[in-house]
Every structure is written in structure tokens, then in C-alpha cells.
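Section: protein folds

Sequence with per-residue C-alpha cells
===
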Amino acid sequence: MNIRFKHLLIPILIFSGIVFSQGKRLVNHISFTGNENIRDKTLISDLHLQPKKFLKGYPFKERALKLDVLSIKNNYIANGFLDVTINSETNIVNDRLIDITYHISEGIRYHLQNINVSGNEVLSTEELLKFLQFNMGDAYNPFQMSRFISEIEYLYFSKGKVLVKIDTEVVRSENTVSANIKIEEGDTFYVSDVTISGILNYPEKFILRELTFKNGDIYNIKEIEKSQSRVFSSGLFGSVEIRPVIGSLLDKNVTIEIKVREYSSKQIKTDIGLGQEPSSLGEGSPPASVLELDVKWQPGTIPKTTSRIEFGSNLAVRLDENITLPNLNYDITWFTPWVLGFRLPLRMRYYHNEQIDEKLDGVSSSFIYRTGERYKLSGSINLEFIESLVESDQKRSVQINYIEQRLNDFIYPSTGYFYSINTELNGTVLGGEVHFLKLDLEYKKFYPLDKNITFGIHHRVGYLHSINYKNENSDPLPPFYKFKLGGSTSLRGWRNTDEINSDGGMIRFQSNFEFRYPLFWLIGGELFLDMGKLADQFDKTLSDGWYWDVGTGITVNSPIGPVRTDVAFPQGNWSDPMVLLSILYLF
């Protein structure tokens, strides 16, 4: 994860908001009248304007007030109050403060009595109602009903019913609602032709081979969207649009029109920001926060192919208690979405990492690479040559990693979750001198307690299994590969990993709990509890010997991310505080 220049906007916008809010009235108090069924706290949580809090205020804006009236109304409508009316009233307290009162007339709460579906022949009523997200007798929610109709339309579009028409009639009776859904399915359309426009430097076959449908197939929007995703993921095009064009209604044919804009992949990118990289103390050590400069050169695709090459270099300075000279890294990456006529995305990378006392050269070849808006699945075969002042070593491994996240913000998360599953097989049939199986799990979740206070939890579980491959690996696993704890990115009660266990462990448990809250201006606070345990086997001693600390911290929202000073008390020892300075939140 890297913080780019765009994150400079965060503190700038915050600072600008503080400066320009001077002279404007701030919201002092918000109250409601007539809300018998929805609590004040629930209504306030969705508003743009918020009441004044300790050292924090929200400038009053008429436009925001109108949006909040609409937000309250939609909240009530979603809960079945279809006739609700909202009026706002403002009261100027003084030159700096203003009160807001929302007067609510809730009206009758309507419940869904039944749904009647007619005109459906291709799909049964039972099949359609499977997409219903609410039950009979629930408060009627017109927004959910609208989503239900959209789901039905999408289902028909996947059955060739391009011209399906769905009308919904809502009939009210006292405090109930009946929904009458009338469907005109229309004819079934078939794909008759594919046209392509916007392609200039590549043959059309680079697009046609990505399509999962062919002429004569029933029109299926699912296959259209899948094909669009495949064309875009080839990396040749910056935009891909696919739409059906209906010719003659008598022929019942659809021409698939594909419009692309070729991606200008020749570029040089320079980024500066924060990140986390593996610690030089070993693979199982907590990551180190670094300030890094990235330079990437993309000379474009190889002529007459979909393959492309990227050159990258990186300078990284460690930013915890051990500020170091820059580490030099560079790499060359080759990518192609097709191999020997098969759609098998392949990414090969040579990389060089150089630190003060160690050099690493490696080659990585991916055999799985799937990404989406919220997930990433990757698998790779790696060969690394490690050269240090003490000894030289080879590392050969297969890794499969999965990441899924639903965070609202990577740098300042306040809601959502993140988890990762990382597996690695080292040595054995791949060769090398060290043989082990590794599993590393990470999970974090954030809970907004109100508009400003966030509670976060973070868990990491790791397991190493040393493999006695052909009786060659009788020696214990070297400490470099074992899990370790301690420092500003794991247990803050200890300055580094040597203070807990320099040899590391085959099993690692780590948990962090943290409250984050604003104080004033760009300053925030933390309250935290860290817990961890290293062990070599699963036995009854797992419940003993846990390391833990409690503490508090101060954060400053800087242009390069949150800078934090943490004061931790190991094992609750109030007379022996540990003070650590770091950048970025622990999780």
C-alpha cells in the first residue's frame, strides 16, 4: 500500500475548512419534534450538518440543510412512512451559533401485504421472488422494491429479453400496500454480428478472442459484461463500451457494438509517499514503515502483441526508531494476458533489493492473478538469491495470497473490514536448503462509534511447519524465517523484536484494539491494548506467557499521513513506559 501525492489533499482540505469556516455560524444544537418511531440518534447519524462537539464545529449551509431534510424524509420512507412531511426551523443563537429543529409529521406506517406478478412465462413467480430482499408483513420500502424490479430486468436481459417491460402498481389500503407487477417479456433476441470501433494499432482478434459469446447465441447481458471485463483486463484499452443495437424487430437480431479507446501505456510515473515493506530482521518480523520514492517507466506494448514491459526503481527510508540510509530496489516486469493461444495471464518479474548488509536478487512468475474492485487473488513461483555479510542462501517458494477489503479509506479508516490469507511452500520439490509450509492470516475491522470516534480491532495468526524433506532438514528452522513480535507495528510495549524473543517462534498470535478520536485541529488521540504470543507448538502452554501492553498516543494528520507518538506500558507496568514514534496507524 502506498500513499500518493493525492493524499496531500487530506490535511490541506482539513486546514482549508478550518480557515474558511471562520466567520461562519456553526451548528450548535439539533432537535426533532414528532419523531415517535425513529430515535434522534438514528436520524442525526445520517445528516451532513452535525451539532457542535468538543473543539469541533460544523459550518451552517442552506444547501446542506435542504439535503438533510431530504435525508430524513428518505429514512422515513424506507421505513414505510410514505406520507411523511419534514419542515426545518433555524434559530440564531448569536453571531457564531445556530440551532436547527426538524418538525416531523410521520403519518401512517405501511406494511407489504402481497405481491402479484403477471405476464411472466419464461421465469416462474417463484424464481422471481427469490430476489426479494424483504418479507410479507415488513414495512414497505419503495427503494427495496425498485432494486427488486431492477434484479428482475437483469434476469430477463440474461434470457435474451432485450425489450422486456415491467410496470409496477402500488395499491394502498388503510395501512397496507399491495404491489402489482405486470411483465411484458417480449421476443427473444439473438446475437447476429459484432462491430468494433476505436481500435487503431492492434488487430481485431485481440478483442474477438476475449468475447465469451458468438453469433447465433441468445443475447445474455452476463456474458456481455464478462466479455467487457476481459477486454479491459487485457491492458490494451483505457475504456471499453459494449452495447446491443437492435436491427429489425422481425428478425429478432442484435448487433453487439464494441467501442474501445486504446490505452496510452507509454509513460513515466513518479510517486512519493508512505508504505510498509518487509523488515530486514526476517520474514516473520513485523513490517517497517518507510518513506519511499517510486519511479516507473512503461515503454508500451511489444509490437504486434499484447505483452508489455515495465521498469521500476525505488528508494526507501525506514521511519521508525531506526532511521536508515535509503534502500535501493529496482525491478523489471513482463506481462501478457495470453500464453500459447490460451487465456492465461502471466506476469514475470525480476527484482533487486539492496540494504546496508544484504542484497537480494529474485525472479517471480505469477500463475494466478485476479483482481476486482474489492479483492485480489495472486499466486507466484519465486526464486531468490540472498547475499549477506554472514552467508549466502537460496529461497525457492510458491505463494498464494488472497486479499479482500471493504474499507472506506486506506489511510484514515473509520468503517469496513480487511482480511488476507497468505500461504507459502518453501523448498521441498522446488529445491533449496530450507523447507517449510507457512500460513499467515490477518483481519481488521473498524466500527464508527459516532461521526468522529472509531474503534478498531486487528488480529494476526501465523503458523510455520518445518518439513523434513528427504531427511535433509534435520536442523531447526533459522530465526530469519520465524515469526517475531515487538515494535511500533505489533506490540508497542517493546522497542524491537529482540526484547521479546530474538529467535522467534513457529506460531504467532497478535491482537490489537484501538480507540481513535479527534482532539483539535489536526491533532488526534489513541487508546490501545496490544497482545501477542510466540510459541513453537500447540500445547497447553499456549495460554501462558502472553505479552501485552496498554497505552495512549497522540496523532498528527501530516501531508504524508498520520504521525503518531505512542506511550505504552508493557505488562501494565506503569513505572516503565515505552515511547515510540512512527508514521501511519499500526493497522
Confidence is low (pLDDT under 50) at residues 1-22. The longest strand covers residues 288-301.
